[in-house]
Amino acid sequence: MTNLDKMFKPDSVAVIGASNQEGKIGYIVMDNLISDGYKGKIFPINPKSDEILGIKAYKSVLDIPEKVDLAVVSIPSVFVNQAVKECGEKGIENMVIITAGFKEIGGKGIELEDELKSLVKEYGIRLIGPNSLGTTDSHTPLNSSFSQIMPPKGNVAFLSQSGAMMVAIIDWSVTSGIGFSKAISLGNKAGLTEIELMEYLADDPETSVVISYLESISEDPDFVNSMRKLAAKKPFIILKSGSSSAGAEAASSHTGALAGSDLAFDTAFDQSGLIRVETMAELFDIGLGFSKAPLPKGDRVAIVTNAGGGGVVTVDAMEKAGLTLVDFDEETKNKFKESIPEEGSVNNPIDVLGDAPATRYEEILDIVLEHNEVDSLIVMICPTASAQPDKTAEAILKAKENSDKPILVVNMGGPSFETANKTLNDNGVPTYIFPETAVHVLKSMTDYAKILDRDYKDCVSNVANTDKAKVESIFKKVKDSGRDALLGSEAYEVAEAYGISAAPIKLATTPEEAGKLAEEMEFPVVLKIASDKILHKSDIGGVKVGIETKEDAESTYNEIIENAKKAHPDIVPDGVEVQKMMPTGQEVLVGMIRDKQFGPMIAFGMGGIYVNLIEDVSFKLAKGLTCDEIDEQFESTKVATLLKGYRGEAPCDISEVKEAIKRVAKLTLDFPEISELDINPIFVYENGSSALDVKITLD
């Protein structure tokens, strides 16, 4: 892990481009360092001034007589690389470059950034930027940015690939109840990446949760496993804009057509234990929850409200989120009755009525929090004429003193709750305006608590009984012939080499050979035109089923070749493939599409001719794939219900299906040249399975 202690807690800072002129970035950075209480030494760098804001200035960092821990740069881009050289010669190890005008403008800017990267590597400099807003650390305190406001002190770290987004959030945070440990503007990521900064923040004692706005994810060949290690330490919540390359180019297979443009990021984040959100509001709502409340030990929720309607809305949201409403026993309900008037409700959600004083809330909260079946609590207050927002906030805090369960408060109003919200947020209780938001936050916290118990034992790397050399020879033959798609007989050999059960299929180049192969396979058989250039074989009469005799096989060979010539006179087929005709079973699909960033994504779902219509499919990344994740992938589909036995049907061989997923993952990891793989359908029986159609495309 890169040590960034002196990036955020430097003993001295040089400001290259420091200025006495108000409005200039060099002036703002200097003023921020001084005004926000930085206690270390400040060295302004400006060749035209002897003094900046009352502090002695230097013409170059090389003139500073002392060691410098951090340099902040805000000079025109054409002069930046020379300044970086001087910092390298001075031995400055940490830099933040605020200056824009690099790769984001193209042309000359790209050349400047390439040179900058080389210099940073040459001198071993840890760089944030260029084109960065800067950084802040509220605990140091250090404001080495050109934001006008220092974020409130707290335990949330914020990484942003957008400087404008960071400025807006810092400004908003003053009244939001959220406090920051560090705020970091990534800029162009010419030096440190978000992954390196996340690794540092994972071990930062001042940070409890990391929230990020990212427009791209840096390359990491083992991204999933890298992120799993970080997510095991603290929650990482990410708003990722843009989309992945998965599925954008290859839709020749069912798997390719089913892969959405943003699917790879969803899949990678889910398997990593990262929490992905869709909006800025979610990013900070969930961040607030994690920063204030402890994690729930389960998914059982109690609701206390002074408004019946609000309780109903909360229950509806919980049901959609998959959280469990606690069903209180009669003994507990009798305790509630001692404090709640008859018109209220002692069932969950517990309605303490609109006239509930703070004392009634306190009495009920004590009982609820002591109950063993309650994992978390949502408290809701509507601003009725009898409501006591401030006193109720104090009652909530008093009840919280003897409990380690998360409490989320929904204060459904505006100005009347201003003081109460501040009191609660300042003392470890997150507040929200609407119940759906609180439920969504609680769901994220509950899911993350489960992530910490995940078993990440690799399920793929130790797959046995595979013949890698055989597949290498098949692929060489295909490439040498100038093809990128395997014939069915070749794909069958690949499947066989990796232990994937498939219906035997062999290539015949004469009618007599077709008859002989059919006889050897035992009838009935299927004959198919063999050509990587003919995609829809059935449409041209290129597939014939139910062949029962040797003579039929020979005559059908000639018929299929003639049909192919009529439909595609410009294509010379490779022959006709003879395949053993298998009994029907439950149809499933197992496939793979390779994402440019995250590698092979394995698909599993309902197979057959309606696969693209029904879209019952689940994806997982092959790298780091665990047995638990294969189980999750299986259970997340509707076809899983059919395979278990539906309406009296016998259950199918589920272990065989999971074995196929595992072996396809192994195959695609062993051979990066496989761009797409599609096995559809696989017939699954009570015992065993058989793949009927295996398509493999090479890059």
Describe this structure in words.
The chain is α/β, with parallel strands linked by helices and 699 residues long. The strands form six sheets. It has a seven-stranded mixed sheet, with helices on both faces. The two termini are 35 Å apart. The relative contact order is 0.07.
Offer a concise description of the structure.
The protein is built from 24 helices and 30 strands. The model is unreliable at 246-257 (pLDDT under 50).
Structural class: alpha/beta
What characteristic shape results from the CA principal axes? flat
Strand content: 15-25%
Tally of DSSP helical segments: 24
Strand order of the largest sheet: 9-8-11-10-12-13-14
Helical amount? 25-40%
Output mean pLDDT: 93
End-to-end Cα distance, whole Å, is 35 Å
Largest sheet: 7 strands, mixed
How many β strands by DSSP? Answer: 30
Q: Rg, please?
A: 32 Å
Low-confidence stretches: 246-257
Write the layout of secondary structure elements.
Elements: H1 5-8, E1 12-16, H2 25-35, E2 41-45, E3 51-52, E4 55-56, E5 70-73, H3 77-90, E6 94-97, H4 108-123, E7 126-128, E8 134-137, E9 142-145, E10 153-160, H5 163-173, E11 180-185, H6 194-202, E12 209-214, H7 223-231, E13 236-240, H8 254-258, H9 263-272, E14 275-277, H10 280-292, E15 300-305, H11 308-321, E16 324-325, H12 330-337, E17 350-351, H13 358-370, E18 376-381, H14 389-400, E19 407-411, H15 418-426, E20 431-432, H16 435-451, H17 468-480, H18 488-497, E21 505-508, H19 511-521, E22 525-530, E23 543-547, H20 550-567, E24 575-580, E25 586-595, E26 599-606, H21 611-614, E27 617-621, H22 627-635, H23 639-643, H24 654-670, E28 674-684, E29 689-691, E30 694-698
